[in-house]
Amino acid sequence: MNHKPLETFPSYVLQLPPWLPAYLRESPGIHETMADRMNMILDLAQLNVKYQTGGPFAAGVFERSTHTLISAGVNLVTSTRASIAHAEIVAITLAQQTVGHHDLGADDRWQYELVTSTAPCAMCLGAIPWSGIRAVVCGARDEDARAIGFDEGDKPVNWIDTLQGRGISVTQDIGRKQAAQILEEYAKAGGIIYNGRQGTQQENDHGHYPSDTKTR
Fold first, then answer.
1. Which residue in 44, 135, 194, 199 has a CA-CA distance of 20 to 30 Å to 106?
2. Contact (Cβ atoms closer than 8 angstroms) between residue 74 and residue 51
């Protein structure tokens, strides 16, 4: 790779794939049950694989009392050439733009829930407390993503306790079977396992998952 002095200054625009807004226009804005909310997010993960617009991950932010969808995101790492463009980061960022504040917990009248097709990796886990999100709902588990080769980063084993200690509730295994199946189908179809490798599922002696490869 050749590096030349900058002649132009690049910019980065968080652009959703065209199919996603089209999907949302046909989807109800309110999803009453946790299972309904997860089913919508898993649809997005499946479609992201189908249209080859990124990795097999999706996430959405919902208002907790009305169950209204505030934002939805999918993994855009490969399609936008940006390692930070994970589904959770995309969904949180778009939610903050929608409500007009960097802190989703700034207005006490509203609380927000992050629904994600797979438990957050180390990067997304770090972003959640600063986002103002008050609840996290996960489909597939960390080990399901690791099983197909993704490295989720140096993530504490007690990450759930850590979030709950900050007043952020965590619910696991909502639609886990279907969520894990989406990951497996992505791998079987030859999907890009970027920045990961097989064999990183075991904890190390310090109570963390190994961090010898980059996160997804």
1. 44
2. no
